[in-house]
Amino acid sequence: MRRDADRYTLFTRRALLLGGLKVGMLGMLGARLYWLQTIESDKYKVLADDNRINTRPLTPSRGLIFDRTGEPLAANRNNFRVLITADKGRAADAIRQAETVLERLDRVITIGDGERQRIIEQMRRNRSFVPVTVRENLTWEQVAQIEFNAPDLPGVSIDLGQTRDYFYPELMSHIVGYVGRVSPEDLRDSDDAVLQLPGMRIGKKGVEKGADEALRGKPGGIQVEVNAVGRVVRELDRVEGEAGANLLLTIDLELQQYVADRLKEQSASAVVMDVVTGDILSMVSVPSFDNNTFARGVTQTEWQDLLNDPKKPLLNKAAQGVYPPGSTYKMVTALAALDSKGIGLWDRLPCNGFIEMPGNVKKYCWIHPAGHGWLNVVEALQQSCDCFFYEAAKRAGVDRIGEAAAKLGFGRPTGVGLPEESGGLQPSRAWKQERESKPWGLGDTYNLGIGQGDMLSTPLQLAVMTARIANGGYDVRPRLVAASAGARDALQPPPVQAKPSAPSLRFNPQHLKAVQQGMDMVVNSQSGTAFSSRITEKGMAMAGKTGTAQVKRITESERGRRMSQTELPWHLRHHALFCGYAPVDSPRYACAVVVEHGMGGSLTAAPITRDILLQTQKLDPSRRPERFKSAMLAGSGTLAETPAAAGDGPPPSRSER
């Protein structure tokens, strides 16, 4: 009996101990539950939502581009595209599943091996759940087929995107440029998450690249609810992005068309510039290419055809092409010699048809081998006397010539707004020593004085030089973008400007007038090298300077038998150059023309410049604001809101829009 009582007491004590432990544990559990569900409920609600809700950026509409009159040059067109998204899970498993899905999708829309490899590589690079574009510009039939086979295509979806359309492709491709897919190099250079968006296009050339950040806009965002494997269940919220800024270019489309027609069938370039504001009114490089090809994605065959064309249509010859400026550079030599007091305004120097250098080497006067006689600087420019400028360059020296050339825009990019622009080459003592480990010689100075030797410039630089001489020596800078505005704001052209607002280059005014007089006599004097290309319309006369740049060195035997340029193959003929301005009495427009292998400036380039400057004065784009039409557009960033039915047709023509 006593033993049973002891056993009962022991049991009761253990039961109380165990009960106490249970109560304590339940209390701790209740306290923890209270802490999690009441005190920190907001924190865990956010964490739960993070697992349930994904936020994805939305691609903004790209800004539009217009010419100076408000004519659209680049806009956006809605199009259907098919996307693929990898499922949540191990990366290797997700890629394998994507490859399987792409094989099935290939039976609906053909996907080449190259495209398939691109898609897989992009999926490996992208963050989880970032869709990858498989194909754009789908037809209605293709959309229907994909939707019909949707159960067998997990991760595949149809989306509405935008395609860039260029309305004047052959005419404006070198200026406007084009957009293209984001490359691995672009991703390495920027950590902007918007670059990983499906179908994202960024500027690759021209203004599209130079003003890419402004045109790109700001991305929006979309909140979607996803299931345990990361597939979208429903859309919760959407905030549209901010469309990119619209740009008003300085280019006058009507003048651009005229210049392109005038240069047709040549391998050439021309630049027309306002000498007061710096506006580039026309910049043409022929032949050209269709930038819509690059916007949609160029094929390997198309790319090779463009690369193999001997006239290099992909090269913007006006801003990238570099050529010896030839005799057009003599204005630089003249100003350098006058400002350095190497020669005086009325000093006369002799021309016997050649000069002798040490070692019995002769430098010839190419224009008049018999010699011009005694000339001052105005007459030397008028008749383009090489011997005069050999001596003028010697007296000025390479350093002073370099200083004058830098003031007039040579030796560096002009900053016009084209990232691919070349700076040319202004040779100097230091450059020669670094490149060839040789000191600068007298022969180098002679060559530089007439724009030959190692000297290289772009047609754009020649236009800038001409504009700065014509406007009285003001540091006017070339520009391609006249104005910009938000997507919902009206674009307005800049006000008409009568005088340059740029700082002075501090050339002696009398020396500039002498150079201007020489350029006037080149065209409007019977003994001038471009007299046959003068403008006879009242009040529209032009001044200018011819230039011929050697491509092949002329040998003594060829000189002796007076070998004609027409006897040489096309690619060995001289380049033809001319730069001029008009009207003479009140300069407003400058023009530079370079015709590759055109044989002579007075023969080929001067007549073209005459026609261009005459047409420019008739249009008078800088002083006729009434030609501007409103460029006020809705903030959608598109000019065509309906997806193209065929997906690959050309943009509408001017009359169709």
- Span between N and C termini? 112 Å
Count up the domains. 2
Structural class estimated from helices and strands: alpha+beta
Rounded to an integer in angstroms, the radius of gyration calculated over CA atoms is: 35 Å
Largest sheet geometry: 6 strands, mixed
Strand content: 15-25%
Q: What percent of the residues sit in helical stretches (DSSP H or I)?
A: 25-40%
CATH class designation of the largest domain: Alpha Beta
Number of helices: 22
| Rounded mean pLDDT score | 86
**CATH homologous superfamily (4th level) name of the largest domain:** DD-peptidase/beta-lactamase superfamily
Subunit organisation of the chains: single chain
- Using DSSP, what is the number of strands? 20
> Ranges with pLDDT <50 over ≥5 residues?
632-636, 640-657
CATH topology call of the largest domain: Beta-lactamase
CATH architectural name of the largest domain = 3-Layer(aba) Sandwich
Shape: elongated
Domain Penicillin-binding protein dimerisation: 59-236
GO molecular function: penicillin binding; peptidoglycan L,D-transpeptidase activity; serine-type D-Ala-D-Ala carboxypeptidase activity
Membrane topology: Single-pass membrane protein
EC number: 3.4.16.4
